[in-house]
Amino acid sequence: MEGLERWKGKIVLITGASSGIGEGIARAVAAAGMKVAVTARRSERLRALISELEKTGAEMMAVPGDMSKEADIRALFPAIHERWGTVDVLINNAGTGAMATFEAGRPEEWRETLEVNVLGLSICTREALKDMQGKEDAQIVNVSSIYAHRLQVPNFSYYQASKFAARALTDTLRAELHAAGARVKIAMVSPGMTATEFREKASQGKFSYESYFKEFQPLVPHDVAEAVLFILSRPRHVQVQDILFSPMGQGL
């Protein structure tokens, strides 16, 4: 994609990269020539991804970690510094959620959703900003959801609340960075229904992967990765704030 050349050799950290959207983004930025650090809890998945992409000449590293644990998040950055240097791009993709009515919701599931989708994102962003101080070109992308914009979606209240919180944090941080004169851009990507493992996990097996395709053709991870590449490809003076998109047939 035209405009990506300036990111070749730059360092990107992608959270939640063991499958789905995170894996798709890792493949896309590796193909663009970036040095790609990936993290997730499933270390074996990360190793398999790295083994595959390194055969294509990609520069990759894995730092397994749990985005609900501050110590794990903070440990990502020294590991990347030791091998490559400071992070230029952060993709906050890790996310979780449980599908249930509010009345049937369990506090432990609510807590995990907030810890990963809001606190984990915030801590990782804070640490990345330390790396990005003084850089002329740096980018944070928060992978969000159509549910950060859509009200009254049943059975997903805490997931939706977490995405609204992430949207508010993204917009507020953008204003703070501007006020401070920082050259760090911050964007959101808000896709609609995307064919990943998330729906099956959130529904505790009630919905299978194949169930995505019953009503309409969903987005796939590559579609979301293309949106991330679009953000990165914009000239330095252009700040994309949010890309909101969905499959044909899924209304807002």
Task: Provide structural commentary.
The chain is α/β, with parallel strands linked by helices. It has one domain (5-245): Rossmann fold. Helix content is 42%, strand content 14%. Strands 3-2-1-4-5-6-7 form a seven-stranded parallel sheet, sandwiched between helices. α3 (70-83) runs parallel beside α4. The protein is globular. The mean pLDDT is 93.
Write the layout of secondary structure elements.
Elements: E1 11-15, H1 20-31, E2 35-39, H2 43-54, E3 59-62, H3 70-83, E4 89-92, H4 107-132, E5 138-143, H5 157-180, E6 184-191, H6 198-202, H7 221-233, E7 242-245
Helix pairs in contact: 1-7, 3-4, 4-5
| Structural domains: how many | 1
CATH architecture: 3-Layer(aba) Sandwich
What's the name of the CATH homologous superfamily?
A: NAD(P)-binding Rossmann-like Domain
CATH topology: Rossmann fold
Relative strand content: 5-15%
Any idea of the CATH class?
Alpha Beta
Order of helices and strands: EHEHEHEHEHEHHE
What percent of residues adopt helix (DSSP H or I)?
A: 40-55%
* Low-pLDDT regions: none
**Whole-number mean pLDDT:** 93
Going across the major beta sheet, what is the strand order? 3-2-1-4-5-6-7
How many β-strands, per DSSP?
7
General form = globular
- Kindly, what is the distance between the CA atoms of the first and last residues, rounded to a whole number of angstroms? 29 Å
Structural class: alpha/beta
* Biggest sheet features: 7 strands, parallel
Task: Return Rg in Å.
Answer: 17 Å
Number of helices: 7
